[in-house]
Design brief:
- About 35% of the residues lie in helices and about 25% in strands.
- It contains 12 helices and 16 strands.
- The radius of gyration is 24 Å and the shape is globular.
- The protein has a 5-stranded mixed β-sheet, with helices on both faces. The protein has a 5-stranded mixed β-sheet with strand order 12-11-10-15-16, sandwiched between helices.
């Protein structure tokens, strides 16, 4: 059995790759790679041919790392042509299970099974009204999706040998690294660019999955619409807010923003967006012609050092509150429908007594690092929601010097699917 494995997650906006090694002491990270996939909506200057080849070029950049090139790998698919469905029927002999599941799939899968790759997993039997019931998950994937992804990976120099779906890879990564108690229910929410993968793990052997057609692109569009920015600039500002601590994104300098200097008074549409999404500590009291030595409203001059210090603290607190409020407004506008879909999914499983409740929510994906998103989900769902870094439970000592400081912590939440795929091959 192999003790070294690779997982490749080809998303909408980027490629993520993870190589891990398994030993008796657990998993160790051997390498991690990522490359952006340039897209038409955010890169309008690119030619149609360049955009069509963008996924291949991103994969080729990843294969520059010898840890991935020409290695057997697991890959996955997601989206509308992936159909996972629960099934349940009275317990039957094992030799009849596959035929019974195929018959069941024909009733519930929304496309012709002749055009699908089909697989299933059985959960533990349950008792209903004193009779044993077989439960499980059947997954159908349209063969065109599989073939397209397979050819893409082969063209880039990979050796794809294992097929999975994003949601199951996500749950696999969590169960392998964190574990799930027998009576615990954890919802994993991986927010991608166009799709959000939802996996609900109930105990270590049952998982319920769904792809939702909403994600980080909605956040970019909300920034664009609320602040009057074109979409490429809105995406840029969103990414800067995600990958850089807000307090480290200064408001001064020579950077041109919406045709005006970010440090000047500027236009309302340009400067206001910069203040609200970033950590410009001068955002309160300096954008209406006031000076640092004046109070924002009365025009009264502050002469004492204590008054000046107190005023500065108040302004900073007000500025921080304004940024939190602004980010919350963006999140509500962008992800309100996503939260509703997740709530409906929770209610469906709870009302059918498939799960008793959801105990906690773990957020991952690049968008999950947007400031305040964990508090937003906690308040909307009424369930503790925290950012999940799947690398936190791995031995990373062998690769930590290979990357800049904090790189693995920054990238970890985006790598859950790729990690789960790598673990899938053992």
């Amino acid at each position: 059995m192999a003790n070294y494995a690779v997982g490749i997650d080809v998303g909408t906006s980027s490629v993520k790759a993870v190589a891990v090694k398994r030993s008796s002491s657990g998993y160790s990270l051997k390498s991690v790679g990522t490359a952006e996939i340039r897209r038409a909506e955010y890169n309008p200057e690119e030619s149609p041919q360049a955009l069509a080849e963008a996924p291949l070029r991103a994969l080729e950049r990843v294969t520059q790392d010898s840890s991935f090139a020409k290695k057997p790998c697991a890959f996955s698919v997601s989206g509308p042509r992936v159909a996972p469905r629960l099934f349940k029927f009275p317990s039957i002999p094992k030799g009849e299970v596959e035929q019974a599941i195929r018959f069941e799939a024909e009733q519930i899968i929304p496309f012709d099974l002749a055009q699908a790759a089909l697989d299933f997993v059985l959960f533990d039997e349950v008792m209903e009204e004193g009779k044993p019931q077989m439960e499980g998950l059947v997954v159908a994937v349209h063969k065109e999706e599989v073939d397209k992804r397979y050819v893409l990976l082969k063209s880039a120099g990979f050796d794809p040998v294992v097929l999975d779906i994003d949601t199951l890879a996500l749950s696999n990564a969590y169960i392998e690294t964190e574990g799930v108690g027998e009576r615990e229910t954890v919802a994993l929410i991986n927010i991608g660019a166009r799709f959000t993968n939802l996996a609900i793990t109930h105990g270590p052997r049952r998982v319920f999955v769904r792809d939702i057609a909403s994600g980080g692109d909605m956040l970019s569009r909300a920034v664009s619409e609320i602040y009057g920015l074109d979409l490429p600039l809105a995406e840029k500002r969103k990414r800067e807010a995600i990958y850089t601590p807000l307090e480290d994104l200064g408001g001064g300098g020579e950077e041109e923003f919406e045709g005006t200097s970010a440090g000047s008074g500027g236009t309302e549409s340009g400067n206001e967006e910069y203040v609200l999404l970033d950590g410009d500590e001068t955002s309160m009291g300096l954008t209406s012609g006031g000076s640092a030595g004046q109070s924002g409203g009365s025009g009264e001059t502050l002469t004492g050092d204590e008054d000046f210090e107190a005023s500065g603290q108040t302004q900073n607190a007000m500025g921080a509150a304004q940024k939190v409020s602004a980010n919350r407004a963006v999140l509500a506008d962008a992800l309100g429908d996503l939260v509703s879909e997740i709530q409906d999914t929770f209610k469906y499983y709870i009302n059918r007594r498939i799960i008793p409740r959801v105990d906690k929510v773990k957020l991952c994906g690049g968008t999950a690092k947007f400031p305040g998103i964990d508090e937003f989900f906690s308040s909307q769902l009424g369930i503790p929601s925290t950012l999940w870094n799947p690398f936190a439970r791995l031995d990373v000592s062998g690769v930590s010097k290979k990357f800049p400081a904090n790189f693995l912590d920054e990238m970890g939440p985006s790598m859950a699917v790729a990690l789960g795929l790598a673990m899938r091959t053992f």
